[in-house]
Amino acid sequence: METDFENKTTFTADILYEYIANSLSGKLFKLATIIMAIGFFIYAIVGYLIKSIPTLLVNLLLFLLTALYLKKVFISLTAKLLLRKRFWVKGEAISKITKFKDKVYITTLNDERTSCYEYKYVKEIHETEHLIILRVQNVRMLLDKRNFTIGEIENFEKFISLQCPSARFIHR
């Protein structure tokens, strides 16, 4: 069977950063950030009330850092940790070739393992700036939009919507 589309994705820090940022853009992470910021602000007020300048200053600083940078720092650290722990084999980043034929075939180039998925099991299709993420049960297939080796990205969305009519599209 001929391949309709083919994509090569190498799991670099920037790919993982974008994937994690997409995953953490939900309401739960925003709520946790707000709660942490409020908690630091309340502790800063307590520091002021008990006339503890170090407590006041430390908690004001933590409040500002949480409110402004928590998401970026968390995503960056998580991406670097994941890259080293899960997406690095024998001294190099994991690369995968995803072929779209009668089914979706994913070959991990580092160890030459192949997985196969039927289109009907694709439940969600997320689109970010540089990624298309297909969710099949608990598996996420990451496709780098810049690396289609067969087929054009412009035609891929129409193709995948025809192959996966029950999938939910989420554009960011």
Shape field: elongated
Total number of distinct structural domains = 2
Main sheet: which strands, in order across? 6-5-4-1-10
Radius of gyration: 21 Å
Structural class: alpha+beta
Helix content: 40-55%
Number of strands: 11
Cα separation of the termini: 33 Å
Strand content: 25-35%
Helix segment tally: 4
Low-confidence stretches: none
Order of helices and strands: EHHHEEEEEEEEEHE
What does this structure look like?
- The strands form 3 sheets. Strands 6-5-4-1-10 form a 5-stranded antiparallel sheet, with no helix packed on it. Strands 9-8-7-11 form a 4-stranded mixed sheet, with helices on one face. Strands 2-3 form a two-stranded antiparallel sheet.
- Helix 2 (27-49) packs antiparallel against helix 3.
- Strand 5 (104-108) and strand 6 form a beta hairpin.
- It has 2 domains: 5-11 and 89-171; 16-85.
- Helix content is 45%, strand content 30%.
- With 172 residues, the chain is α+β, with helices and mostly antiparallel strands.
